Amino acid sequence: MKKEPIVIENIDCRVNNNILEVTCRISGDTLTYRISSDHVSELLPIHPEFAIVACMPKAMLDGRDIHCSVPVDPVFLSNMEHYQRRMMALPEERADEWLGVVPNPLFPHGYDNLVQWYKSLLNPVQIHAPMARPLGANDKYRVGTPYSGGVDSTYTLLGIHELTDVVHIENMNWPNTRASLKLLKLLRPNLRLHQVYAADFYHERDTNHWIFFSHGSFLASAALLFSEYFTSVVTSGTDRGPGLEMGSGHDIDYLWSSSLMRFFSYGQVPRFNKIEFFGKHLQADTILSHLQVCSDLPKRGDRTNCSQCWKCLYTMLLIDACGLREKATAFDYTHFVEDFKNYPVPNDYSIVYNMPMVIEGYRKTGNNEMLRVCLDYIKKAQSNLKKLEKYGYTA
């Protein structure tokens, strides 16, 4: 029996001073973005691609087509077909790599079951919409990037000299921009800042499966609000392998492109190397004293990072292995060794790439205590230990 489609009902845009509020009704639900910028008038008109992108993870998980009455860019529609095929092909192509070194408690029966589970989750869907006339890229020649103040986005901020603008995205319910915006202003003060607030992460509600697919689509949805303003958007690449884990990656992000605006991904290098890069930068002290990676807002409070959650501990590990602990005043290392030793092995694919370099870093610095801690960490995941061999690690 065919399921009810997801219907994009209407898109409403209201400008008040330097605030643009975009509201979209989607099958009785509401997707709202509020953009604070000195250039909101240049963002109009808003095209419907942002709403379709926000719906894609839910549509594929539920097996529901998308209906939109507003004309949609033909290049974007074609890319959405490729995006679906890419997402559904990834687990089969990269099954031996995804979630690499650590056993995942969600999938205790191994990779064959994981691949079958993943493939059974996603369904191909159709987008029913009138086709707009291809507009071609705008003539503003502006290049934007989403920025969070973390490792990947800061690496992009420093590495792409052609950037003209930064889009800072956050949930209206969790406002805490102090540290990341301060770092932005210290590193690239001449970039134009546009702040995007999401009233609700429409795509992240409903089921626990969202995290596997929705992070990339949320960033792309927010970025597509700027398709009349940016010529290109540079997303921050990670070392998380095929991008399956977050619905984002170098072989996925470019498929968000339309005839108006192109997406590119930058920085598919191990995070250990990114931290090394920060340490050698002329503004190393500034970067490492303002870097904000923490996602545990209750623990963090008014601090830059809580220094207790996995994102903090993992970043602190990389910084420490690079010999940069003394510069990293954005983190509290008082209980780092014990906290890292006692933290349950997480489901973080990034560790596959970085742990061999971390171990080598501690060998070079002669930190035998942390070397033993890292080797013990490896033993916690010994059932998948052989997966490290292809990345250069031998015990």
Order of helices and strands: EEEHEHHEEHEHEHEEHHHHHHH
Mean pLDDT: 82
Radius of gyration from the alpha-carbon trace, in angstroms: 21 Å
Give the helix level as a range of percent.
25-40%
- Given the structure, what is the number of helices? 13
Instruction: Characterize the overall form.
Output: globular
The low-pLDDT segments are: 95-111, 203-210, 388-395
The secondary structure category is alpha/beta
Number of strands: 10
* Strands in their spatial order, largest beta sheet: 5-4-1-2-3-8-7-6-9-10
Major sheet: size, sense and barrel closure? 10 strands, mixed
Report the sheet-strand fraction.
Answer: 15-25%
Q: What is the count of distinct domains? A: 2
How far apart, in Å, are the first and last alpha carbons?
Answer: 54 Å
Q: Summarize this, please?
A:
This protein is an alpha/beta fold. It contains 13 helices and 10 strands.
Please give the structural blueprint.
Blueprint: E1 6-16, E2 19-26, E3 29-36, H1 49-62, E4 66-68, H2 74-94, H3 111-121, E5 127-128, E6 143-147, H4 151-159, E7 165-171, H5 178-187, E8 192-198, H6 214-223, E9 232-236, E10 262-266, H7 271-280, H8 284-290, H9 297-300, H10 310-321, H11 336-342, H12 350-365, H13 368-380
Parallel strand pairs: 1-4, 4-5, 6-7, 6-9, 7-8, 9-10
Antiparallel strand pairs: 1-2, 2-3, 3-8
Describe this structure in words.
- This protein is α/β, with parallel strands linked by helices and 395 residues long.
- It folds into 2 domains: 6-266, no CATH class; 272-391, no CATH class.
- It is 36% helix and 15% strand.
- The protein has 13 helices and 10 strands.
- The chain has helices spanning 49-62, 74-94, 111-121, 151-159, 178-187, 214-223, 271-280, 284-290, 297-300, 310-321, 336-342, 350-365, 368-380, and strands at residues 6-16, 19-26, 29-36, 66-68, 127-128, 143-147, 165-171, 192-198, 232-236, 262-266.
- The protein has a 10-stranded mixed beta sheet, with helices on both faces.
- Strand 2 (19-26) and strand 3 (29-36) form a beta hairpin.
- Helix 1 (49-62) packs antiparallel against helix 6 (214-223).
- The chain is globular and about 65 Å long.
- It starts with 5 loop residues before the first strand and ends in a 15-residue tail after the last helix.
